[in-house]
């Protein structure tokens, strides 16, 4: 039976996860010690008690007012408009969604925050800071997209395995925040943007300039001003995943 809406009342007060956080040092032998932000002990005790009471797994996430988060008649950017320069029919009426896309690395990872119209934020930061960003973002994030490493039957070094480990940690951080996530191979991104699995990074960059907009100059920055290196791949991931969502 399909239940359109289910209301649950939990007695007592909910301990906030965003207040009274703790900063602890993580690391150890052969691993540099770095600070990491954890929830307060009061929250951890509340969560442990709540999980014992709930029994079966229950995922809850506050989405706010759904009506306020729906895009009505979204006008596409000029690069994505129709032949007459108007809105792209394929994107009109699509539910508003903001994606945090990550191109994971061994020590640092590139990211882009994309809402389907413009880049809200971008950068390349330490992986521990990325965990903090996922746990407490400055934007209302609806989906985490992370590039998935593919096996091509070749020997790989320790860096690849470390990157896989960080990919898992990013996904785990999203799951702890009840945040939806999606893993996608780079081949899928190439296929969508260029139409070929053999596309080069330069091809993807040119395509993104067509889709999102030019970089411009320091005096007159364009939509992709400041995007460079691995951040291009994060942007490509964000655009691909956003366009593939229903």
Secondary-structure map:
Elements: E1 22-28, E2 31-38, H1 41-54, E3 99-103, E4 108-114, E5 119-126, H2 127-135, E6 143-148, H3 158-176, E7 180-185, H4 186-193, H5 201-211, H6 230-244
Parallel strand pairs: 3-6, 6-7
Antiparallel strand pairs: 1-2, 3-4, 4-5
Structure report:
The protein folds into 2 domains: 46 residues, no CATH class; 155 residues, Ribonuclease H-like superfamily/Ribonuclease H (Nucleotidyltransferase, domain 5, 2-Layer Sandwich). The protein has 246 residues and is of the alpha/beta class. The chain contains 6 helices and 7 strands; from the N terminus they run E-E-H-E-E-E-H-E-H-E-H-H-H. The protein is globular.
Keywords:
7 strands; Nucleotidyltransferase, domain 5; five-stranded mixed sheet; globular
Mean pLDDT: 76
Number of helices: 6
Secondary structure class reads alpha/beta
Strand order of the largest sheet: 5-4-3-6-7
The major pleated sheet works out as: 5 strands, mixed
Order of helices and strands: EEHEEEHEHEHHH
Short characterization:
The chain has helices spanning 41-54, 127-135, 158-176, 186-193, 201-211, 230-244; strands at residues 22-28, 31-38, 99-103, 108-114, 119-126, 143-148, 180-185. The protein is an alpha/beta fold. It has a five-stranded mixed sheet with strand order 5-4-3-6-7, sandwiched between helices.
């Amino acid at each position: 039976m399909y239940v359109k809406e289910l209301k649950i009342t939990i007695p007592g007060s909910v301990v906030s996860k965003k207040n009274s956080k703790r900063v602890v040092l993580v690391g150890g032998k052969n691993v540099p010690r770095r600070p990491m932000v954890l929830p307060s002990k009061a929250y951890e005790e509340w969560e442990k008690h709540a999980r014992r009471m709930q029994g079966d797994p229950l995922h809850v996430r506050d989405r706010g007012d759904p009506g306020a988060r729906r895009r009505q008649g979204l006008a596409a950017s000029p690069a994505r408009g129709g032949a007459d320069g108007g809105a792209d029919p394929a994107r009109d009426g699509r539910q508003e969604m903001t994606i945090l896309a990550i191109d994971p690395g061994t020590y640092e990872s590139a990211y882009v925050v994309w809402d389907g119209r413009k880049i809200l934020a971008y950068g390349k930061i330490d992986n521990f800071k990325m965990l903090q960003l996922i746990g407490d973002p400055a934007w209302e994030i609806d989906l985490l997209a992370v590039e998935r490493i593919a096996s091509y039957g070749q020997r790989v070094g320790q860096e690849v395995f470390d990157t896989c480990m960080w990919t898992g940690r990013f996904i785990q951080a999203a799951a702890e925040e009840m945040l939806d996530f999606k893993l996608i191979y780079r081949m899928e991104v190439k296929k969508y943007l260029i139409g070929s699995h053999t596309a080069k990074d330069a091809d993807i960059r040119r395509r993104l300039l067509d889709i999102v907009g030019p970089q411009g100059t320091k005096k007159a920055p364009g939509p992709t001003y400041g995007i460079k290196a691995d951040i291009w791949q994060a942007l490509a991931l964000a655009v691909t995943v956003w366009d593939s969502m229903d």
